[in-house]
């Protein structure tokens, strides 16, 4: 094994391909993981849900956010398993989703996911536009952690105070305003090809927010003190540099490049060597973005300072790769980045994303990474990114996926209010603040709603994990942890795709449309293949099956038999009996002519779907 792997590796380098291909045989379905990671953002939506909302167990919520303050703050994202809209991690999330959409545009488009990716970004940016009511005013939080955490309710039932908190010249917050500026600048790039007027609007907000952040300096949790216990900022210098770096990337305006250079020392950009990249600490991100500028030969008179930035970018990358003269990022025995007890997985996903993009920047310039312990090729950075992604998806001592809904075994007790309480579509009566704890939080049963794509906090330093709802350090999914995955998984999926590129033009039907009509049953199935890719020798297909109601008569309890299913299926509930499925609770009735659908992914022939029974 070892030897043949090394062999392939050398060959892969020789051919100028990535070493990842050598391991492709044992690969994960990153495309599926990517789609699920986007679904998570739908589950976290606050406000009025659109008609094309796919996560049906959610309903409208937070429709009066901002009302008491006389400002429309409806929309945006709930942070995690709770319902506070915390500005800082939400903005970081939008920045990271956008970075993925920019750098991996081709990959995401290839997976047919650009529409949903942009929708995830826009759900955040539309909210930021509302929250940025004046050039120097930014509403930075709705709800507060203390009262929110006192209750275990669905977002749709929320009874807790929805106070809103703002930044203004007398209550500055350069970290929060800076991160929001970065998010707007990055999102403006993501939208540029798709909607130039929206893109310009975002950029205008980004520029204004940056000057607000820069002119009125301060730490946001001094101004919004109730954020402190939850998202304490360690400083705002990194966000100012980060915002300027993004604005330079979005505009090419030398003003922003000069800013990061002039402030390189005073704001720690060339001084801080870090091992963490997160909602709080952006230095490594700044350093990698600026390395790209330098390597592309756009540094001009600023090149010498940019080199110092790159030295710190290299520190971060070498530390992840364990080649940094002992100053390395801690790993669990199973190989996962391990920085904090609480929600550690987010640091692994963000480090993986950074190394994936840095690997691309280096290879675009035929550059190598010079670490204290070794000289490193770009593909090794990508292999590190893959190692973290694979750990997340199941290659770990527990052999479980930490991405909810992916694979065979994943956490079923995520610490998440909405996921753990029956959907409003099923249980119409209100679930009260305390009742939620009594009837739902403390239940031993699995959550009734699978929160697809939620990246939970993950294992401890010894790769141990306890799937327990009250173990929030390990089982709570967060926005910040999920955001880097969208770009990361698309990149990894595209590498698998290219290894099977010889068969890319195979006659696999892409939009095959085969209606299967059963004469005397009330529904019709329409089978599509919506995507296909090859891993090793197996070609996988993403099948979508539409169930159309062609009946005029009332029918209930529709049960479907699905045979020869070898892959993952979503959109139906499994019943106790083998190979038997029913419509999700909230979809029990299909109006005449209306339709529902489910999706599954597998290699080989398609599954056989038939109606088993109905009343
Ligand atoms: C582009 O964005 C604007 C908002 O700035 C929106 O009104 C318009 O509908 C969008 N156009 C398209 C084609 O989505
Ligand atoms: C199909 O539509 C009819 C007419 O509204 C309804 O009575 C029936 O329950 C629907 N079938 C399913 C499977 O929901
Ligand atoms: C399909 O499933 C049936 C039983 O459910 C089994 O007998 C048959 O061999 C399977 N066919 C394939 C191609 O896997």
UniProtKB/TrEMBL annotation:
Pfam families: CBM49, Glyco_hydro_9. It is found in: Secreted. It catalyses: Endohydrolysis of (1->4)-beta-D-glucosidic linkages in cellulose, lichenin and cereal beta-D-glucans. GO terms for molecular function: carbohydrate binding; cellulase activity. InterPro entries: 6-hairpin_glycosidase_sf (IPR008928), 6hp_glycosidase-like_sf (IPR012341), CBM_49 (IPR019028), Glyco_hydro_9 (IPR001701), Glyco_hydro_9_His_AS (IPR018221). Its EC number is 3.2.1.4. Belongs to the glycosyl hydrolase 9 (cellulase E) family. This is Endoglucanase. It comes from Vitis vinifera.
